[in-house]
Description:
By secondary structure, the protein is of the alpha+beta class. It has helices at 11-24, 29-44, 55-63, 92-110, 127-134, 189-197, 233-246, 286-301, 317-329, 335-348; strands at 6-9, 74-79, 82-86, 112-120, 138-144, 166-172, 175-182, 207-209, 225-227, 271-279, 331-334. Strand 3, helix 4 (92-110) and strand 4 (112-120) form a beta-alpha-beta unit.
Amino acid sequence: MAKPxxxxxxxxxxxxxxxxxxxxxxxxxxxxARVAELMVExxxxxxxxxxxxxxxxYIRRIRGGAVNVRPTITVDRSAAATAIxxxxxxxxxxxxxxxxxxxxxxxxxxxxxxxxxRRSNHAGPAALYAAMPVEHGMVGLYSAVASANHMAPWGxxxxxxxxxxxxxxxxxxxxxxxxxxxxxxVVSYGTVKNAVLQGQALPQGWMVSRQDGRPLxxxxxxxxxxxxxxxxxxxxGLAIALGLLAGTLNGAVFGRxxxxxxxxxxxxxxxxxxxxxxxxxxxxDPALFAREASRHLDDLRASSPLPNAGPVRLPGDMRVVRHxxxxxxxxxxxxxxxxxxxxxxxxxxxxxxx
Length: 354
């Protein structure tokens, strides 16, 4: 199959277009700009299935009444180091930015801040939020209940679990942070949707048919499949644990109660998340930690690769490289997505993407 055609679009043009689209459906200008900023940041770091790719879906759900465009996001500080954020069904990016800010403030006072979130929405890639405490010299830990179920519990054939992601950010002084961002499935469902948009066959090992358990690679049949967990039963178990902590613990949905935001444009999802910020200075001198962490990470990067398998890569290494490259050369977008944006611009009466 031929490689799908892509075109480069400048990040500032993507931001302008997304902000205009959100403004056209009722988001206040400041909120529209902030959501657009975080979406474009997702593209700059390479989370192609969770950035501007999601714009038509977000707009569709807003127009369907599923998302509150003028939420009152509230913070209930339940103890010295804990808080609950109620997102009032606002855009997930706005809700999680507030939650991350709260976690950092709690950690500044108490050494650690754990913030649970309820009544939110899809917020893009997990890395965005694990990185926010890192900007303050803190460790960041983030997870969420995914906005649709595409995985079965281990040994099952019914989609009752999401791709529930886990992201961990660790500052390393002046160097790039260690930033792990993983789904608990082999790939995120957004990656599957991106492949479907471009008509690409799915690699074996991503999905299996829920009818017979055989590999599913036909992009036209993804609704008949379930995503496979990372590490077999381990990924399934991790998705359950994260779902209980991000969902049930916060009064948000989990399991059979999850609303599939891919198929439902009118219902509130009550998406749950949690974010933790940890102040390194409460354990060790931050300068010493940075030196030691850099030494260990450099040692790992310099280790001998397997034959025909190098170079050695650590979580977050490509994030910095990709961000610089895409800021310089533009974000690569599939042509079918650009076509969708042209139709969206006509529907909303905004200046199309150049």
